[in-house]
Amino acid sequence: MATRNIYETSFDEDVQTDTESNQCPECDGRVTTNAVETVCEDCGLVVDEHQIDHGPEWRGFDADERERTGAPLTATRHDRGLSTEIGRGADANGNELSGQKRQRLARMRREQSRGRFQSKAERNLAHGLSEVRRIVSRLELSESIRDQACQLFRSAQTEDLLRGRSIEAMAAASVYGACRCNGRPQTLDDVTDSARVVQSRVTNAYKTLNTELGLPAQPVTPSAFVPRLASDLDVSDQIRQRARQLADAFESTGATTGVQPSGFAAACLYKAGHERGQLLTQSNVADVANVSPVTVRTHRDTLDKLAV
């Protein structure tokens, strides 16, 4: 059987002897080459430097350029994104596959999907994380919220909080919990509308997460809802600023304690619109804030009594 020297190319050695010109041009001394330069061991003459590195480039000089090390680890996948996905359709060059190769890939894809999950817990984790990604996409939230929601769902499974509860409800509660921890103006109704379970189950799941995991949930103020509601109502910047001023003023007095933030923000926009000459109807403002017109009128009366 033919054999070869495994160190024939000596690619993994830091220092090697230059086989082509192993003599120094100045003193005829011994010349060695390391990863940076070629030097003479006797006189120290630098014969060559800045050699071409024929290895892979591990950096990306452009934001759209992919690194050769592959995609980074992510918390949005049950396996941190390390599993392989078998594609469909054409090959790497864009050529259409034959029927025999498509059948072969279909069999490989089926067996690969069966081997992705080592246990029932991993299958539940994958289902829950996919539900979290779906809800985040529907709500158009940021990637940081998505990653935190996925990590929150993973922590809930680790603490055995999924037992006896719906995976969809816990996924929706994880998204709502991530929004609350970051002070996002997202109501429970918004998350429930994108979820596949009723609001009561999402509420119970969120209470469990908040109690068992001790979430650092921040109280959402009415002023945080003003920009979102103003954008939905398409009001002017003057009305938006006046509504924000009203909300900030009443938050400092404590008048907003115990009230629904979105409803109070809607009342601030309603009052600011009337002050600036844009007559907003109570029904339209209530629909945008997902509250009843009675709530808007009640908070409007409070604003009139404590006028700023």
Automatic annotation (TrEMBL):
One Gene Ontology term from the biological process aspect of the record: transcription preinitiation complex assembly
InterPro entries associated with the record: Cyclin-like_dom (IPR013763), Cyclin-like_sf (IPR036915), TFIIB (IPR000812), TFIIB_arc (IPR023484), TFIIB_cyclin (IPR013150), Znf_TFIIB (IPR013137)
Annotated transmembrane regions: none
Name recorded for this polypeptide: Transcription initiation factor IIB
HAMAP family: TF2B_arch
Keyword Ubl conjugation: no
Pfam families hit by this protein: TFIIB (PF00382), Zn_Ribbon_TF (PF08271)
Species annotation: Natrinema gari JCM 14663
Highest taxon, organism lineage: Archaea
Sequence repeats: 130-213, 224-305
Gene Ontology cellular component annotations, sorted alphabetically: transcription preinitiation complex
Ranges where the Cyclin-like domain occurs: 130-211, 224-308
Name of encoding gene: tfb
SMART domains named in the record: CYCLIN
Family membership noted in the UniProt record: Belongs to the TFIIB family.
Lineage: Archaea, Methanobacteriati, Methanobacteriota, Stenosarchaea group, Halobacteria
Gene3D superfamilies: 1.10.472.170, Cyclin-like
Region described as Disordered: 1-21, 59-104
Record keywords, A-Z: Initiation factor, Metal-binding, Protein biosynthesis, Repeat, Transcription, Transcription regulation, Zinc, Zinc-finger
Basic and acidic residues composition bias: residue spans: 59-69
Free-text function comment from the UniProt entry: Stabilizes TBP binding to an archaeal box-A promoter. Also responsible for recruiting RNA polymerase II to the pre-initiation complex (DNA-TBP-TFIIB).
Database matches in SUPFAM superfamilies: Cyclin-like, Zinc beta-ribbon
Residues bound to Zn(2+): 24, 27, 40, 43
GO molecular function, one term: zinc ion binding
